[in-house]
Amino acid sequence: MKRIIKKAGTFLRVLFKEGPLVLMHTSVQVLERDRGENYNIWIKEKEKSITETLELSHKPKISVVVPVYNVETAMLKDCIESVLNQTYDNWELCIADDCSTMESVKNCLKEYEDNEKIKIVYREKNGHISLCTNSAIELADGEYIAFMDCDDTLSPNALYEVACKLNEDNTLDFIYSDEDKIDENGKRRHEPHFKPEWSPDTYMSLNYTCHLGVYRKSIGDEIGWLRKGYEGAQDYDFTLRFTEKTDRIGHIPKILYHWRQRAESTAVNPEAKGYILETAKRAKEDALSRRNIQGEVEYISEIYQYRVNYACAGNPLVSVIIPSKDNFEVFKRCVDSLREITEYDNYEIVLVDNGSSEEQMERYAAYCKKYAYTYVYKEKEFNFSFMCNLGAAHANGELYLFLNDDITIKEGKWMERMAGHAMQSHVGAVGAKLLYPDTTLIQHVGVISFVAGPVHSLCQMDDTPIYYFCRNKIEYNYSAVTAACLMVDKKKFEEIGGFDESYAVAYNDIDLCFKLFEKGYYNVARMDAVLYHHESLSRGSDTISPEKMKRLIKERERLYSAHPQFNAYDPFYSPNLTMEKGDFSLSIKTKGSYGNVHKVSADSFKAGRSDAFKYHIGLLSVREPSVNISGWCFDDNKKYNNISKVYVILKGRKNCYIADTDKEYSKDFNLYSEKNRNVSLCGFKCRIAMSEIDEGEYKLCLVKGGMLYETDQSVYIGN
């Protein structure tokens, strides 16, 4: 009843605040989400051949262990039958009943006692899940142990895919897969969790590996399997201890496990088992203690997780290196806010100026002299990498913090949180959460390497909601973080040779992060180091002119030539998620249908010159076989922005093409409207077949309400 009342309230709120058009659009979205339409499409596209197998040369024995206690017969049978129906044959099922009080449990298990591949033990005393699981493991003689809950099910190809992974690399000690949830009836699949490759900082944030987890038995025997007293977080505690013994970890980016949602399950409500929070906290504290790392855990109530805050052991000097030119007021605003708000006090400021005017230079010098900051002046054509390296050469700190002059500080603990993390031996670059000034809009929470190049995760989205498995609320490993605010240990910075000065403008920070990862370090973004970024104040957009666009494309090609493993791939982003935008939505081919495209004359539209016209191009990807474009636009002086549709125009010297778009909804768009108009339905996306466009360079334009507006973006179609 509460759910119905809540939905009715939402229905009325949208109707009266955003109008019937938005209500109709969002209702369709909600209906598709509730029915799992997108995920159903994904399943049809990706799981067509899950029962097909090839002969394997290496067929390790896998022991599936299942602790059982008072579970409904139908669920228990689903669990057991899902193992019996595996396409892989070298397995055994080891079941321990934890002295269930429901007679039906024992009756169900007795039906399987004669199966030679199933071993069952009936405990005489209830010991809870840790001891019960250990009893099941005592029955096992497989090389690997696979954990499974008694009300969940395996995909029919689960153990085969694990064996395939071990045929690729038989030195792996721990393998985990993607997972989804099923309802109580076991019919509806939903909430898929598509996971990154092994990410140690992400794992210290939350137990993201979870199901399916497969472990080498010899290591489990060595560390003692599950510990009594850690019930509720027993597998998290175990995996923390296990991964201290090995880094031979593999991930299978396929849904191999179906986690059943029950009313009393944490799969539905994390508060259902409140003791889990306490045991998870203790597991993290134990891990810090075992690893001789100073730190504390901090509870984040909105996501029911504990984050780890690492201590700044030894109070290291942080060198804050700020490149700036002819931008004194912006620089002063940055450093004034840093000095007034930052709680960590052992830092120095190194200002690097690559050729300010005499007047600006005098102001910089006087300000630095007043506060005993280091001022380095070197007249040179703009080269961000050179300026950062020059600043590092004049720095005295153990940690380098590269900071744009258009950053302002939001809260006090940001520097010590970043510094503590940067001091960890396995960590490379540490980034921050950057918001657009005086808003809750995300500018940066980490960088993903897409087909079209590096893209900011969740960019332009409101930071208030919780996005894909808490990506904007807790620390995650990323392939790269922006140098607008990036901290790195001096020794690691020198180990990789600092910034590559051949990347004068773009991708220098991406290259730096890629090099750190290739040296074995993990880059991470701190979600509690929150700063404002007044983006593009220092210099213009790279895409204003065709010349800058060509330079950007050339540098991107060189970046991936130097780091080919990141070309259209990111180890910290699932291949099952879209590479068209950084919102962690599913990758679905059939949803990317081509829009209608035809030639037009640009003169058939009236040129729009309104200062109130606002737009953002979130994605502009040009790679065979299509051009993918998405963003938002509206005229702040007009009332009915949600009604009028957006068309994309590619305007060339000879030809001009117009493309149809699909509407996109987001309440975040309203944050850009200065006049509080409702523009939540002003997003757009389109996919254009390159085969329909003649080769050449095109200016990207938008048509809305019959008016044509030129953007600062250009595209080149051709080889």
Describe this protein's structure:
By secondary structure, the protein is α/β, with parallel strands linked by helices. It has 17 helices and 33 strands. A hairpin with a 2-residue loop joins strand 26 (613-623) and strand 27 (626-635). Residues 30-35 and 537-544 have low confidence and may be disordered.
Strand content: 25-35%
| CATH fold-level assignment of the largest domain | Spore Coat Polysaccharide Biosynthesis Protein SpsA, Chain A
N- and C-termini, Cα separation: 59 Å
Structural class: alpha/beta
Low-confidence stretches: 30-35, 537-544
Give the full name of the CATH homologous superfamily of the largest domain: Spore Coat Polysaccharide Biosynthesis Protein SpsA, Chain A
Compact overview of the structure:
The chain is an alpha/beta fold and 719 residues long.
